[in-house]
Specification:
By secondary structure, this protein is mainly beta. It has a single domain, classed as Lipocalin (Beta Barrel), CATH 2.40.128. Helix content is about 5%, strand content about 55%. It has 1 helix and 10 strands. The chain has one helix at about 1-5; strands at about 25-30, 35-40, 45-55, 60-70, 80-85, 90-100, 105-110, 115-120, 125-135, 140-149. A 10-stranded antiparallel β-barrel has the order 1-2-3-4-5-6-7-8-9-10.
């Protein structure tokens, strides 16, 4: 197997991941959840890692999220930017990310899901404000304020 890997060219990250560069850093989150979130690139630039520490409805929730293109064993990378969250309450959630201009959309599950977050970055990129929308009509507003880059 090592000969097979040696013969392959060095892979490079999909350029669409660079749109998520504006998330890198530490943010204070307010609104329906309170706490901090930080984003950093894993070595190689194929995945962005989020760490979070929130109070959500009186429950402390910590976790990680890995964001990038899924690539099944022996397959091609996904067209969409996908993620999976693992948290201290035992949840594993999947999301699909899209950043167009200053608008970030995160769908719960697949693109077009009725559960999603949509927010807009400020002109200086240091604030993102939006809301989580749930199919039952629920949801909550959320604002992220950059603390460090």
């Amino acid at each position: 197997m090592s000969d097979q890997y040696a013969a392959q060219s060095t892979p490079t990250p999909n350029p669409d991941l660079q749109s998520l560069e504006r998330l890198v850093g530490t943010w204070e989150v307010s609104g329906g959840v309170q706490g901090t979130v930080s984003f950093e690139w894993l070595e190689g630039g194929f995945f962005l890692m989020q760490r979070f520490d929130f109070d959500h409805g009186g429950h402390r929730v910590q976790g990680i999220e890995i964001i990038g293109h899924e690539q099944p064993f022996g397959g091609e990378p996904s067209a969409d930017i996908k993620s999976r969250i693992y948290d201290t309450l035992g949840n594993t959630f999947e999301y699909t990310y899209e950043l167009l201009g200053d608008t970030l959309t995160i769908w719960g599950g697949e693109r077009g899901s009725p559960a999603y977050y949509r927010g807009t970055f400020s002109a200086d990129g240091n604030t993102a404000s939006g809301a989580w929308i749930y199919p039952d009509g629920g949801g909550y507003g959320s604002t992220m304020q950059r603390v460090t880059r």
